[in-house]
Structures are given as structure tokens and as C-alpha cells.
Amino acid sequence: MQHRLRLRPRATIVSSTLVVAGAIGLAALTAAPAQAAPTATTATIDAPTTATVGTAFDVDLTIPATTDVYAYEITLDADADSVAYVDDSVTGPDGGFDSVERDGDALTVVHTRLGTSPALSGDLAASIGLTPTAAGSVDLAVTSITLVGSDGTSTTLTDPASTTISIAAAATPTPTPTPTATPTPGATATADPGAGAGDPDPTATAGPSDPSDPTSGATAVAAAGGDRPTGGELAWTGADVAPWIAASLALLAAGGTLITLRARRARRERTGAAE
Predict the structure, then answer these.
(1) Distance of alpha carbon 77 from alpha carbon 145, whole angstroms
(2) Which of 93, 103, 83 is nearest to 62 (CA)?
(3) Smallest Cα–Cα separation from 90: which of 128, 60, 37, 140?
(4) Which residues lie in Low complexity bias regions (predicted)?
């Protein structure tokens, strides 16, 4: 007795194939480990131990031994009254976008990868510039670091690093004295204030003269109605006194003669009376 083969409908075969494929895929997904969050354990901060007001310096931040970091956020605490952020000074890993926001004493450094850039692993380095604005001791502290993975998971580090900077006041420049011009001895022309405009009558003031010159320092005085004396002669008024002197001598002589004659006459009269 012959048995006929029973044919299964085509729809049943397709359905069974899909079920098997789905089961295999589910098993593969279940067996794969879940994606881990970014890893990091510490961070370092590098800055000069001393600085001067007005002179900018760099602060370097490093996060060593990371894995699967697609973005990070670093919070740096710095006294806003002592240091100021230098605009556009932030740097970070290549292939990403960096920015800095300030809120009081907190400076937040943000780095995110571009859409086509892969996640980062290894040592991550960032840097910003600060300018001291006041003398004193300033503490720089990295208070928080948040790492974000490519799948959105995150890892946070708290109080990972700090340092202290001693800031000195800027040196005061020493003023340079301005040289003073030394006057040169010589003749100085003094304008006559009584002269009219356009007709100056300067009086020359002579410079130092030779002390061996006998006429040095002599002043010529004009004589009214007479000739001017030459240098070295005494000043005179210009009046002619010779006639007056001669007349005075004549009067004195006449007076003396008259007195002598009267004395002789009186002597003779006394002598005649006695005889």
C-alpha cells in the first residue's frame, strides 16, 4: 500500500523561517555585553607657582587613562576678584568644539565631539588662559569632571585636583628725569616798553667784560648843553664855573686889602694922638 507525501503550504514555511531568524537574533543580542560608561579615575592641574598682575599664564588640565569619551565638562574654581579668563584661550582635543562659561568664581570648560568624530580614549588634555588682576595667593581647584560616552552614559569625578598660585604686584616703572637746558651767557636785547609797535628800541645788556680793562663797568652819562665825556672820565653836570671862581677870588682879595688899609689908618691915628 502506497502512502502519499503531504505537502506543507508555502505560507507555513515562510513563517517558520522568520521565527527561527528572530530567535537567533535575540540570542545574539542577549549574549552581547552591555555598553560600559566612560572611565577615568583622576585628573591633574598644571599652572605656575608665581605670577604677576597683568601678565597672563596658562592652566593645563589633564584627564589620564580615559575610554569612550564623546564629551566632557570640567569645572574650575578660581577667585573672580584675583584672576580673569582670557577670551578665546581655551584648547582641547582635535576634532571637537571647546567653550568656556564663567559664573562667579566657577569656570566651566566644555568639549564635545563633532558628528563624524570618534569617541576619545587615553589621556585627554585641555588648557585655558588666566590673567591676574590683584596681588595675593589664589587657589585653583578642579571641583568636578563629567565624562559623557557615545551612548549617553556618564561618569563624574569630584575634587580631582587643585593648586595655589602666588601673585605679585606689577613693578612700578621709575620715571626718567627730563634734561634741563643750560642757558648760554651772552648779550640780551631788552625791548624799550615806551617804543611804538614796529619800532623796537632794544637796550643791549653786555655780557661779562675783561676785569683788566680800566674802562670796564664805566657808564656814559649825557651832559646837557655840552660834549659827552669819553669812557673813563668822571661824570659832570656840564656847567662852566670858572668865571664864578675868578670873581670869588677877586672879592676875597679886595676884602683883605680893605681890612689891611683900615688897620694901618687906625694905627697912625693912635700914634699921632699920643705925641
Answers:
(1) 12
(2) 93
(3) 128
(4) 183-208, 217-226
> Which amino acid belongs to residue 257?
T
Q: DSSP characters for 139-171?
A: EEEEEEEEEE-TTS-EEEEEEEEEEEEEEEPPP
The predicted-structure confidence for 134-189, as pLDDT tens digits, reads as follows 999 999 999 999 999 988 899 999 878 999 999 999 988 777 777 777 766 665 54
Closest CA relative to residue 96, chosen from 123, 122, 124, 76: 124
In angstroms, the Cα distances linking 12 to 7, 9, 15, 19, 21 are 11, 6, 5, 11, 15
- Determine the Cα–Cα distance for residues 131 and 142; give it in Å rounded to an integer: 18
The DSSP letter of residue 180 is P
Q: Which of 11-15, 81-85, 198-202 has the lowest mean pLDDT?
A: 11-15
Distances (CA, A) of 68 to 34, 39, 115, 192: 14, 7, 15, 97
Least Cα distance to 69 among 49, 43, 50 occurs for 43
Domains of the chain, earliest start first: 44-166 (2.60.40.680)
Distance separating alpha carbons of residues 42 and 62, to the nearest angstrom: 9
| Residue written as grid cell 591676574 | 132
Q: What is the CA radius of gyration of the chain?
A: 61
The C-alpha cell 582670557 sits at 86
Look up the pTM and report it.
Answer: 0.52
Q: pLDDT tens digit string along 57-113?
A: 999 999 999 999 999 999 999 999 999 999 999 999 999 999 999 999 999 999 999
Q: Are 139 and 148 spatial neighbours (Cβ–Cβ below 8 Å)?
A: no
pLDDT value of position 274: 62
